[in-house]
Amino acid sequence: MNYEEKIQNSETHVFKVVFPNITNHHNTMFGGTVMEMMDEVAFMTATRFARKSFVTVSCDRIDFKKPIPADTLVELIGRVKYVGNSSLKVNVEVYVEQMYDDIRERAVSGDFTLVAIGADKKPIKIFEREEIANQL
């Protein structure tokens, strides 16, 4: 499998229902809960891409464009955006969907940087030179 196929095959889709227990006094999803879900999807995407252990080291510009009300569905989509030696960047988009209507809108998006780590919890290379050369 080549590099582009790895990126495509690692795209991750997760669906959740927004129940009242994860909403605030405005009856919309807590921002921190959205970020937690996004981080989890970024981790899954990175792991599926490289099949290594990852930790999140930063998140960049998380934009909340639309509120996410209770009693809706959300779809989180993670896509590998950049790959370095030991780190990669995953873009996560969150779409809100009405349960009983065909209305779907992008609500939140952001980038997460994750680092591959070994058993000693220190950064490791995502791919060895030979693996990259074989894919070009």
Could you explain the architecture of this structure?
The chain is of the alpha+beta class. The chain is built from 3 helices and 5 strands, in the order αβαββββα. It has helices at 3-9, 31-50, 129-135; strands at 12-17, 53-64, 72-83, 87-98, 104-117. It has a 5-stranded antiparallel beta sheet, with helices on both faces. The chain is elongated.
Query: What separation lies between the terminal Cα atoms?
Result: 10 Å
Outline the biggest β-sheet: 5 strands, antiparallel
Based on helices, strands and strand pairing, what is the structural class?
alpha+beta
Estimated helix fraction = 25-40%
Give the H and E element order.
HEHEEEEH
- The counted number of beta strands is 5
Tell me the strand percentage band: 35-45%
Task: Tell me, rounded to a whole number, the average pLDDT.
Answer: 94
Using only C-alpha atoms, the radius of gyration works out to 17 Å
With strands numbered from the N-terminus, the spatial order across the biggest sheet is: 1-3-4-5-2
Low-confidence stretches: none
Overall body shape? elongated
- SS field, number of helical segments: 3
